[in-house]
Amino acid sequence: MSDGPTSVGVSLRAAPPDRLPEVTAEHLRTRYAAEGVEVLLGDLSLSALRPLLDPDGPAGGPLEQRCFGSQQPQIDPRPDGPTRLILPLTVWGDRLGVLRIETGTPPSRTAIEEMHAIAGELAMALRTADRDTDRYHHARRKQRLTMAAELQWDLLPGRSLSGERFRLAGALEPAYAVYGDHYDWALTGDRITATVLNGSGDGLEATLLTAVAVNAMRNARRSGANIVEQAELASDAIYSRNGGNAHVATLLLEIDLISGAVEAVDAGSPRAMIARNGDIRQVTLEQQLPLGMFGDTRYEIQKVQLEPADRLLVVSDGVHAAAPGGGPDFGSAALLTALRSTRLQPPSEAVGTVLRSLRDYHAGTDAEDDAVIVCLDWLRQAA
């Protein structure tokens, strides 16, 4: 058996779920004479990279952040110490963190390629192990989550996803005390279904309302239902539970990755925009009733057409309607400025840039609502 990526994959699959970093570190020390190894995971707000092997050690610095943002290996051949190699930990475009390896001499190109593959094996194992250990959840937290936030994070599909024809990312804030806003997506064949939700109310009740909506739509989607049927099943489930006293504003989208055709059900306040050739325009849709407002509500599909290299953006009302101190809302001008500044960034970076701009717009005051942004780049041709 090979000593490279294949054997470490076998070792990871045989290891207890909470010991994956140690198994990887031992392999790197044995095979590549690594003098130091650290696994750093992105925290919930993706503002810091937190160490796993030495939890009391320093967070990731500029080199680690550069690797995490660019998704490219970083090499630091220091003359006064070991060479540092930083590798991204990524699964299907979902950025988990970075792997830092220190060696006495600069590694060869072949060794770098092998260690890059090992980082990929570790990333896949870490994502799988999340269901069976709390170690990695604990490492990603700067502070304790509210119960509502705990439920919301468990509902999320991930924070980014990519394929030959698309790049997709989502962000949710505030990370440690979210309420009813949410996003969801699923890739099946050449189609992506994506939803952004604004749940009404506060705290745990808002989260439970969103959980009913998300799981009802997933139940319909996983049974082969289209987005109209997904919306109607979710609306009926919410109405049955709340009798019209609570509702969920939702935008459901199904994107054909071959043709760029988008089918939409606009059931509330999330707002969609398209960035094209340096211009950003709002997608005009006929707004239908929020989910759960009335019994037996029926919905209709509306159609939008993407062009190659288009960027589709969806924001919740916690973004576009945010108006700290009673001033003008963020969506009136500041949102467009923030979106234009992300033109050269991949979606995984763009969503964070917009939410940082929103935080700056609040100028130190607490946000009155949580905020969601989803960003999809349609590449059309294989990358």
Automatic annotation (TrEMBL):
Q: What organism is recorded for this protein?
A: Paractinoplanes tereljensis
Q: What is the lineage of its organism?
A: Bacteria, Bacillati, Actinomycetota, Actinomycetes, Micromonosporales
Q: Which domain of life is it from?
A: Bacteria
Q: In Gene Ontology terms, what is one molecular function of this protein?
A: phosphatase activity
Q: Which UniProt keywords apply?
A: Hydrolase
Q: Which SUPFAM superfamilies does the record match to this protein? A: PP2C-like
Q: What is this protein called?
A: Phosphatase
PPM-type phosphatase domain boundaries: 168-378
InterPro entries for this protein: Bact_Sigma-Reg (IPR052016), PPM-type-like_dom_sf (IPR036457), PPM-type_phosphatase-like_dom (IPR001932)
Q: Name one Pfam family in it.
A: SpoIIE
